[in-house]
């Protein structure tokens, strides 16, 4: 694959540090990027994803879907000069059924007027 076809990406973590930059084929999927981020995640961070599915990638203000390709995600950058694209990384475990089904705690005031 010719060098000019590869897209250079780096991933900005919650504390401002970066993973990368790495070069990816435009046919690489967001799921593949998440796997790479998960495997390269710094061990000294306070927040650590348990799986690649806990990672959300944000580019141009949009959360990227796993089935999208790098080529589809870089469309807004098409007119920018060649360079490294920064994607933001958020760790957010998926909601489980248990969390969705938990009843909301209600607090009541137990004041008595005498």
Structural summary, described in words:
- The protein is built from three helices and five strands, in the order ββαββαβα.
- It has helices spanning 30-40, 70-73, 97-101, and strands at 7-12, 18-24, 55-59, 62-63, 85-91.
- A hairpin with a 5-residue loop joins strand 1 (7-12) and strand 2.
- The N and C termini lie far apart (83 Å).
- This is Membrane-anchored ubiquitin-fold protein 4.
Task: Briefly characterize the structure.
With 114 residues, this protein is of the alpha+beta class. Helices cover 18% and strands 24% of the residues.
List the helices and strands and how they pair.
Blueprint lengths: L6 E6 L5 E7 L5 H11 L14 E5 L2 E2 L6 H4 L11 E7 L5 H5 L13
Parallel strand pairs: 1-5
Antiparallel strand pairs: 1-2, 3-4, 3-5
Spell out the key features of this protein:
alpha+beta, elongated, Membrane-anchored ubiquitin-fold protein 4
The strand order across the widest sheet is: 2-1-5-3-4
Tally of alpha and pi helices: 3
Number of strands: 5
Distance between the termini: 83 Å
Average pLDDT across residues?
Answer: 79
């Amino acid at each position: 694959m010719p060098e000019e076809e590869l897209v250079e990406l780096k991933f900005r973590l919650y504390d401002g540090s970066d993973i990368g930059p790495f070069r990816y084929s435009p046919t690489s999927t967001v799921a593949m990027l998440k796997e790479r981020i998960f495997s390269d995640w710094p061990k000294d961070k306070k927040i650590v994803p348990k799986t690649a599915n806990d990672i959300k990638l944000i580019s141009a203000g949009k959360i990227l879907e796993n089935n999208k390709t790098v080529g589809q995600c870089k469309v807004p950058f098409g007119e920018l000069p060649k360079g490294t694209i920064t994607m933001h990384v958020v760790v957010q475990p998926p909601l489980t059924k248990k969390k969705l089904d938990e009843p909301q705690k209600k607090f009541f005031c137990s004041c008595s007027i005498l």
